[in-house]
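Blinded run. Sample ID left blank on purpose so nobody reads anything into the name before looking at the predicted structure. Input follows.
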Amino acid sequence: MTKGGRNAGRHYAGPTWEATDGSRVVGEVIANSPSTKPNSIAQLLLRAKATAGNGIFTHVQYIQRLNTVGGGAPSIVGCGKEQAGQQLRASYTADYAFYGAKH
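Blinded prediction complete.
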């Protein structure tokens, strides 16, 4: 996660966004729409289900994942015992917009 080319925090499972100022928001999906790009993950609308800290994410109420490129399920050859338990990752890019009450 960058802001003006600098690291402004991180994004990880939850889905969670955590800023370098210590604030954090955890989202829950309330709507999705297919990406306009082939083999790309869905665009999402999320509601903040939890926030923490005092900073940029403190008052976030909604999050949008937009302009997704990539991240679709990779093509795999075979689906047998040899592949059981394997984990595949798919890189993607997206724009995230955060909305909240003005304070």
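Unblinding after everyone has recorded impressions. The chain has one domain: 2-100.
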